[in-house]
Amino acid sequence: MTIPQSIFSPCHGVVPLRPRLENWMAELLQDRPRLDALTDRFGAPLNIQSVDPFRRNIARLTDCVTDYGLPFLPMFARKANKCLSYVQAARDMGIGIDTASHSEVEQCLEQGLPGDRIVCTAAVKDRALMTLCVGGGVTVILDNEDELELLVDVAEGATKPVSVGLRLNGFERDGTKLYSRFGFPLTQVPTLAARITASETLRLDGLHFHLNGYSAEDRIAAILQTLPLIHKIKGDSTAPFFLDIGGGIPMNYLDDAAEWEAWLAQLDRAIAGDRAPITQHNDGLGRKAGGEGKVDSYPVAQTLVQEDWMRRILDHMADGQTVAAHLRDAHISLRCEPGRSLLDGCGMTLARVAFCKRDSGGTPVIGVQMNRTQSRSGFAEFALDPLMVPAPGPRKEAIEGYLAGTYCTESEWLTRRKMSFPQGVKAGDLMVFPNTAGYLMHFLESRSHQFPLARNVFVTEGNAGAVTLDDIDAG
Is 81 part of a structural domain of the chain? Predict the structure, then answer.
């Protein structure tokens, strides 16, 4: 369907960063009575989600890699979203799950995921987590010597060898070492592999890395530096062996990615004093005068994304053949751990406007009944325009102002970007933050002040009446 422009008119940034919407989102945003019914029933703030885009994103990524004749198992990064609906969809589509805690592993096993389709990459693994993984047949990605020693102790007496992978660091690109606090140095891998191979309780099934950022070139460099290690470990063996390249598949959340550069240009002008501020107190959000520095924002505008990014890696030529061919020749199964790229288009967070006032400087403040942790990742900003669904009744004058949340601090802003409300804004309007399913809903959510966490409901595309509460909230 064509997204009606009227959806974007009630609220947008003074310099717009218009979100790209799914059809199911647009249909719902035009149905105020249904939104009211959902918030009356489940409360607000409310996370409204759909697994239909999730399934589509899985299918596209899987089709892309299988075109290269490579064995492939994507492992959905569960930490990106806590809802069990995605676990169930991943289970039914035959992909795996990347888990990062005892509860995540336990829930996946309870949902019927076989252990050999679960990998545990938790940053800290205690005895209870290791014991659960051993009992459930889960692959454990080892990060350090202490974890290895603990797992050897836990696995003693196990009925079958425990599947493990080694996490790597120390990669270089163009003469610069890629920093990571995780993993074993590449130079230690052959010795560690020999130690595990000699063990009666552990079985080395693969190697793993996860690089910060979204660079395809970094991944290519890491793969090419890992391949010689794999040859040393497995030789000519055709036994199953995986290379897991982690997550970080980039995404574009904007309707027009060029708007990001336009917004940056206006931010630079504002910082320089050449135009009115577009952020609170003319905050550069990490950007410095003269265009130096990066805005500390969740990445919303990237041009090489999803399957095209994966093709860039697999098509790269090295020593006369592609990366994909190198992997095939070495009998390696490719794995990756996508989170937000599989959750693209899957969710939005909505909350009610409680008031509109002015601060001590005379600037409009719009109070919204949610807190900043309910639509925020580890970045300081989510640079994507929220939408507004107006309440019935007469409107007030047009204003420009800032969205404030419920925590009792001066820093409690849902976004530090100035918003424009051409039709005004009043109590009872609904503010909607689009495309929040990947990390933004759950990664930092907090119950400070004893506010309840937002509940999570799922709708089905094309079925206006169907709505279910996710099992994570059903108890």
Answer: yes
